[in-house]
Amino acid sequence: MERLTKQERTIEFRHLRHFIATAEHGSFRKAGVALGLSQSAVSRSIADLEDQIGASLFHRHTWGVELTYAGQRFLRRARHVVRTIDAGTDDAAAIGRSEYGSIHIGIYSSIASGFLAELLRAYNARHGGVQINLVDGNAAEHVAAIRKLRVDVAFLTGTEEWAGCDTVHLWSERVFAVLPLEHRLARCDELEWQVLAGESFIVSEAPPGQEIRDYLVRRLAGLDRHPAIQVQYVGRDNLLPLVAIGRGLTLVSEAMTVAQFPGIAYRPIVAEVLPFSAVWSPRNDNPAFRRLLSMARSMATTGNANGAIRLASQTGLNAAP
């Protein structure tokens, strides 16, 4: 039997499967039945494999076949190769189904309640093997990371188009003023911008503090008022207790109103609604991210999270006990 060089060998995966099946069944006919092939197709495949290797793998008998010494040695390696490829295929398929892998998500809104909370809860229930990494930051930071594929998707306020990115509007939330429970405006069910024009505000230095500051300036500029805004170098969790002791008012989106803090009240601002959009790179082929985006679009279409958003506003309207 002519021996081929390594470069000339073209052993295919099917050759190994046919060889293993023949070894296990001791017959080309029985192996063919197990594989759904004809006896002649299995016989030709084994002959082709033997030509590629340059050694006989079976002794042929009228009653069947048995492995040669070379065949016995090759069987162990063939089984190892098939197991390795099968395991790799299963692993790749699992990643493709988003059973494993990781996803980096840039956030602006609170995940305490509302659309984003429901989305992450549903995604985790379906793809619990995927590692979810949440990244705080402002819009510019998130988009820069998206372009470099360091962040898979960011959920940002507004519907702005970002160069090199795809964007889709998913949900909207009302805007709430946060004020001390004893504040005179806490007696109101809703607030107009006019009654807020003379108030002092505080924002966090951390995101989304700058966005809130810009939002206040835009809204109150139309009333010919320049708001008094003080930056506090604390996170959101410590900003609200400062509101409670009277250091100033602040703003939050609807999802944040589920957070309960003593001494504060949430009041919606009339006709103020924030749109939220997903932003991602069209070059991103992370299957875990693609599943999340598909789920988000489906939820946005069916409105599955609307009830959760309403619940958040209802439970957050009054002061915490």
Explain what you see:
The chain contains 11 helices and 10 strands. α8 (209-221) links the parallel β7 and β8. The protein is rod-shaped and about 100 Å long. The protein has 2 domains: 6-96, Arc Repressor Mutant, subunit A; 102-316, D-Maltodextrin-Binding Protein, domain 2. The chain has 321 residues and is an alpha/beta fold. The model is unreliable at 304-321 (pLDDT under 50). α5 (114-126) packs across α10 (287-302). The relative contact order is 0.14.
Strand order across the largest sheet? 4-3-5-10-6-9
Tally the beta strands. Answer: 10
What is the CATH architecture annotation of the largest domain?
3-Layer(aba) Sandwich
Domain count, please report it: 2
Number of helices: 11
Largest sheet, in brief, is: 6 strands, mixed
Helix amount: 40-55%
Jot down its keywords.
321 residues; Arc Repressor Mutant, subunit A; D-Maltodextrin-Binding Protein, domain 2; six-stranded mixed β-sheet; 11 helices; rod-shaped; disordered C terminus
Q: What's the gist of this structure?
A:
The chain has 11 helices and 10 strands. With 321 residues, it is α/β, with parallel strands linked by helices. The chain has 2 domains: 6-96, Winged helix-like DNA-binding domain superfamily/Winged helix DNA-binding domain (Arc Repressor Mutant, subunit A, Orthogonal Bundle), CATH 1.10.10.10; 102-316, 3-Layer(aba) Sandwich (D-Maltodextrin-Binding Protein, domain 2).
Give me the secondary-structure topology:
Elements: H1 13-25, H2 28-35, H3 39-53, E1 58-61, E2 64-67, H4 69-96, E3 102-107, H5 114-126, E4 131-136, H6 139-147, E5 153-157, E6 166-180, H7 193-196, E7 200-204, H8 209-221, E8 228-232, H9 236-244, E9 250-253, E10 264-280, H10 287-302, H11 306-316
Helix pairs in contact: 1-2, 1-3, 1-4, 2-3, 5-10
